[in-house]
Amino acid sequence: MGKDIIFIDTNVFISEHYFLKKNRITTLCNLAAKSRINILMPEIIKKEIAHHIQTDMRHAFNAVTDKGNCVLKHDERYDQYCNTSSKKEMDKIASTSLEAFLTHSNTYILGYDYCTDVDIIFGKYFSKEKPFGEGKKKDEFPDAFALLALETYCKKNKLPQIIVLSQDGDMKKYNSPYLKVIEYKAYVSQKLAEDTELTSLESQLESMIPLWTKDWEDSILKTLDDESLYAPICGFSDISDIDITACEVSANPSQYYIIENTEEFLSVEIYPTVEFQVKVRHQDLDYGYYDSEDHCWYGDVWSTKDIKSSANIKVTLNFQKEGSYLDIEDVDLEEVLHRLE
To answer: Within a 10 A sphere around the Cβ of 338, how many other Cβ atoms?
Structure first.
């Protein structure tokens, strides 16, 4: 289950009143901060959103400070505040709030270099293709440049699709193999449900991995304690002793890969790291000689080969959604064996 890459249309920010606590914009921001989704924003849309925030804040401020409704309408100090410092402060708040969203969500800004093919845009404009249309829609240049930037990014990075969250009817009619337009309220609801499942999975991983680590180490120790593994390394000479001096497994509960998602369960892979060291005492064939008549070695020397390496083991897990039960399906030690070849 890959991570969604999304674009949030300007009308969604406006509809949600920008960055109110617990609105859907803030929810998407928090999901991105948790790496549940990735957010893209073309530079032209960033400027458009900033303009809308600033304009709407000024309208709201003017409505509140209208002298006809204000008890302080004859106070010169109040008049000076409304016309100077307060407006500067408003513009600062507008800019700061947008930057805070972009930073917290790790939003990736697409520069103007992603929308340089103006022939495509003007071709759509003159043929009235979406996002252009009739009336007020005939001059939708910001949307057109934004969509071109998203398509270019998608093609350049060989992505399957970018999800566009919008409530614009013409945007929903926009036809592109690279973009999938989704109604944003339904999308946020879906991602919140997924986030609940993943949070439960991560909690189980946090609890169970320390308990499983000892079992994995025991399995690796048993695997490493096999003379046949070291025969090629030691030139197929006699081995007298295997001393496993270190075997330590570590795993990060936040690093996992969902390979299957059904209504009942999630199939998950994790890749714990094992650090191990083995000292193998073997006959050194560079010294001594073998007497074929006596059938024995003369002047033989024994050496110790110190093998120190690390590998990732693949562990497949099954997470039952009902009851939040997590168990091990398979442990693959193949990479450990490869390190001994």
So the answer is: 10
